[in-house]
Amino acid sequence: MTNDLANGGAEPRNDWTRDEIAALFDLPFDDLMFRAMATHRAHHRAGEVQMCTLLSIKTGGCPEDCGYCSQSASAETEVKAEKLMDVDAVLASAAKAKEAGSQRFCMGAAWRNPKERDMPKIVQMIEGVRGIGMETCMTLGMLSADQARQLADAGLDYYNHNIDTSPENYGNIITTRTFQDRLDTLDEVRKAGINVCCGGIVGMGETREDRVGFIHALATLPRHPESVPVNALVPVKGTVLGDMLAGTPLAGIDEIEFVRTVAVARITMPQSMVRLSAGRESMSDAGQAMAFMAGANSIFTGDKLLTTANAGDNRDAALFARLGVVPLAGEEPKRVMANA
Ligand code: SAM
Ligand code: DTB
Ligand code: SF4
Known about the structure:
Layout: H1 18-26, H2 29-43, E1 48-58, H3 87-99, E2 104-109, H4 119-131, E3 135-139, H5 145-154, E4 158-160, H6 170-173, H7 179-191, E5 195-197, E6 200-202, H8 208-219, E7 227-232, H9 240-245, H10 255-268, E8 273-276, H11 285-293, E9 298-300, H12 313-323, E10 326-327
The structure holds S-adenosylmethionine, 6-(5-methyl-2-OXO-imidazolidin-4-yl)-hexanoic acid (DTB) and iron/sulfur cluster (SF4).
6-(5-methyl-2-OXO-imidazolidin-4-yl)-hexanoic acid binds at residues 54, 70, 106, 108, 139, 160, 162, 199, 229, 231, 234, 277-278, 305-308.
């Protein structure tokens, strides 16, 4: 296996093979953790965790059929379809998040793709949130080249668009779009010069081989995503996967296997921010501590994700104090060059 430690601060690799990634997953847990910690320390300040806050700016009624999602019109959940929020309400929410110590404000819409009539409001939201001094992230579904350009011109720092799982497993989870559709939008985002936030979900009943394929797909993108969210499925009643996996503490994955996934993401994408995303609410403090040790260096703060509950500021503050973890000191967002 190639020695990623010898790589030090050098350029990350994009030529990982599936076998190399499978071999990382197979390592004895302490060896895997040792390598992940060493990689983390070579590229990041250990013990610092970035704080991001989510807001659902357009909730529910989504035409896509993602089997995990409370907001799909095909799911029978308690989430009601709402209109796109007003700009002022979004900015008030961002200001509150900033006051609570959050660095990045991530706005999510339950759309297959944004419509042209929505774009002026979206642009105002980006400009307004940047105006209060926060990094901006949006996740609005598929984008055309022109929409990606409009978002870039408004100053959007990051676009979140997840590949969610391995290419082989994708069709078992979502049928209304393809894995290639996701790659196409990621390409438009890159070409527009917006930083990429791209990850997925584990604990959806996938195999280890699917987790290998998921990390392999991310780590062999032409350029690694600047942010890699690793979500654990939050099982929501009325969704296909929620109903299938309800009642198990961390849905379909145990904490050790979850931490292994974080560690392999850290080793293969050394410069990326790896976000311990959905699912923290049902994780033990020890599980979260291991995930930070494995190289996770970003979280979602606050009581709510998009539609489901999150660990909350009090629990996070208590955990950070016990672990000696501090919020990442604010840094100017790095803008990437188009086609770089
Ligand atoms: N509609 C847009 C899209 O799908 O691209 C943006 C919003 S969507 C809710 C953002 C991401 O949240 C999904 O790609 C998925 O990875 C994650 N997500 C959604 N529901 C989840 C759940 N129940 N548990 C864990 N992650 C979830
Ligand atoms: C991501 O990977 N996780 C966030 C964000 N990107 C948009 C969303 C998590 C959603 C969890 C389920 C919910 O609250 O509806
Ligand atoms: Fe729609 Fe996004 Fe939910 Fe899929 S994950 S149903 S695209 S909101």
